[in-house]
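Bench notes, afternoon.
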Amino acid sequence: KKLMAIFSFAPETMKPTALLLNLFVAGMSFYYYYKEGYFNKKLFIAFALASIPLAFLGGRIEVDASIYKKILAVLLVFAILKMLNVFGKESESIKQVKLWQGLVVGGIIGFFSGLIGIGGGIILSPVILLLHWGKMKEAAAVSALFIWVNSAAGLIGQLSSGVVLEKESFILVAVALIGGVLGGYYGSKKINNTNLRYILAFVLIIACAKLMFT
């Protein structure tokens, strides 16, 4: 999504392609976290109940290109702040999320997930940590599946409203999967975590500025 913003993809291409990419990337991420036993089912359900139908609704709504870019730029700020460790640190005391809290938070994030095509994990993960609703890896596992279900709902909403996935979308999926493998290798072996966070934050800042001022 961030690279599509940098290279000025049209919103009508960016939105469904980003949702499709999320299905593959978030799916792989969730698999590994689930395998290690970090998935909190109750925490996920609290957010997913309202997010899935509202992501579908958001996916059906067409947004003016200039408004789309501004909303996306604002949402990318969450990712930048998280990369720079401004918020989202783990707490020792964990609180139980109330159902109404999960419905409100999940519903709002889900709607914008479908509307913009972001999946919602970049917002949900820091919210879980800030409000002490889960540990770091629990938040990552829940956010990964949250991204997947919202992206699926948003994409179904897009397709049901007449949007057609272009062949370029599937090419980008292949490129993203290759990039994910290479990034995982170099991220784990060649680049330390601090440097990697700064590099990603820099890329996101470029994408954010491009969306906001073009």
